[in-house]
Amino acid sequence: MNKKECVAMLLAGGQGSRLYALTNKIAKPAVTYGGKYRIIDFPLSNCVNSGIDTVGVMTQYQPLVLNDYIGNGEPWDLDRSYGGVHVLSPYQAKNSSEWYKGTANAIYQNIPFIKRYDPEFVLILSGDHIYKMDYSKMIERHKATGAACTIAAIRVPLSEASRFGILNVKDDGEIYEFEEKPQKPKSDLASMGIYVFTADKLYKYLEEDEANALSSNDFGKDVLPKMLLSGEKMYSYTFDGYWKDVGTINSLFSSNMDLLEGRAFESDDGGWRIRSRNPIAPPHFIGKEGKVRHSIVSSGCEIEGEVTNSILSHDVIVGKGAKVRNSIVFAGARIGENAVVDYSIIDENVGVGKGAKIGKENSEDKIAVLGRDINVEDGAVVLAGEMVDGDVGGGL
Amino acid sequence: MSALGLIFSNIHDSNMPELTAKRTVASIPFGGRYRLIDFALSNMVNSGITKVGVITKSNYRSLMDHLGSGKDWDLARHHGGLFILPPFEGQNGSLYTTRLEALKNVSGFLSKSEEDLVVMSDSDMVCNIDFKPIIKEHAKRNADITLIYVGRNKNSIAKGAYLSIDDGRVTGISFDDNAGENEYTNICVIGRAFLLNLIAEAVARGSNHFIKDVLQPRLKDLRIMGYKHDGYYEEMNSLQKYYDESMKLLDADIRNQVLKKASVYTKVKDSSPTRYGDEAVVGNSLIADGCVVEGEVYDSVIFRGVKIGKGTVVRNCILMQNTITGEKVNMNCIITDKNVVVKDGRNLSGCENHPFFIAKGTVI
Questions:
Q1: Which tens digits make up the pLDDT trace of A239-250?
Q2: CA Rg, chain B, in Å?
Q3: Which of B252, B278, B282 minimises the CB distance to A290?
Q4: Fewer CB within 10 Å, N- or C-terminus of chain B?
Q5: Domain spanning B275-358: which CATH class is it, in words?
């Protein structure tokens, strides 16, 4: 059997609890972004575009939608007879069965999967970020430096550096210190949670980590510091494109707005196209009284109202006289006649009744969120910043 | 009863010479993101047919490109799936010219198949037909052939066949324009073994017209039944008709019947959603993915990847894939084929009863 040079392992099991109602029923990597994408489209497309055709996706929390979405990997050309995308869920073994205890443990439990392809390198990814990155360049650097581990890093404002894992590096990029969320950061180089390991080193340190009962089985907290302490050669790889964590309501909102404003990237960039599973839907229709300005609209939408500064996923219906402003509306949502939606995120298949009022103008810091499948009755009000995951009754 | 599908992709190519200069009638773009054959194929797939042969004749590169392996119609299969049936050269070095000759060419495909029935369809029409009840009716009435017809369309340019129906049975077929109310759609259900016999017999007799030579003379001894389709059905038999029917999609009822009642599958492109700029104004228009709209669009059908520049006003137009308009362009009643470029400041106008057509790749 021929081997694969690099296998990618994508950690997609996180709950994403800071996305509240949006991740009650689905895992974070399955959350919609930019109208037609889901967060996981970015790492998956990056893999394919970087020439990596073997990807293990570790799922755990609410995997139904995510598993369905990934399917056989066909939209990403990852339906291969050797390699391709594999969904790896926690499993029951003869003597034990356990959930993934941490990021390192998730990979540890899937070492047999990796070893099937006998790769030289293992690329560890997460499903939390929006970015376009050529992993092959990072792997080239990993080879050139002969490191045991290479960590992708991005420069962040020093004022925000304490939210990240910070790398302190020498001039040539060799890491001499790793600080997880430091109070007083010494550098502005933040870890992106993307690692390339030389496979043998990865197996060794994961096995040691597993044997250590005190470990929390986390790459950032346990495995990487341990490797550094053991004197392994570790390098940073600096990335300077658009990269945004979408782990909170506010960051998800602002990242979508980055796309709308052209601050993120051209999403149809032919050279580095982000692929996704396409819905079967006709072109969208804008009615006689419909108005659409400065917005992104996907297929299947029917717009009779007004849409401004917003992103609409497929099959969204906006009724007559309704106003959708500064908002993100996921697939299949229905905005009733004369309803007003401002600074809100409306999840899939939500029904907003006639004349309802969701969110409030000028409230960028207080985004209203309506969770999947709920109904908001005619005339009901959802205040700015409110997170709703159950049906909302009518006014008064 | 199991059925396979058979689609004629080149029938009536000559009706729309503008649009078929470089493609088959089957691959004419329609409705913002589809090709005409998507309707015939989706009808079959939605009716549970999982094996479809597409009969080709000429200029079928774009059709092959569109169909690929058939996976977008769930027809990439180990068992059954999509079969492209390229033409055989005839005895005198010519390609087939009639439906019977085309069928003769594919008798190998038919005889190797195992399905009981064949659903035959042209690809120059737009409709949403469920064959399941028709197949049921075909079996129940013990029919040899079931011809699907529609109520006479007053606007249609007469060229088709008209059926006389008595208690569901076809008692007459006429090509006389004044011959009645029931217009044959060129869609029929027929037993596979029976069809093979008809073809063999027709070859032996040297007949060449399926209706005139095969069906008409045998109305009495064959059980030829009619089935009326009541929903939307239109043949694209002229550029004007194509324009009018495209514009009808702006009507919510028609759109629901044609595009939404049952899924219409088509080749998937990974286009990003459409972007609207600060000055965009759009009314009563159907707009596909991957467009960038900076100007004004009214009463139009816009295909994938079209760019409308700032200050440009588009009215009553059909702009096909990757049409690019510059700034301050005025367009009215124009049909652009793919990859047309209209430069800044141009004024182009046709008329609603005579839309102006701009050929593929033209730069104006």
A1: 999 999 898 899
A2: 21
A3: B282
A4: N
A5: mainly beta
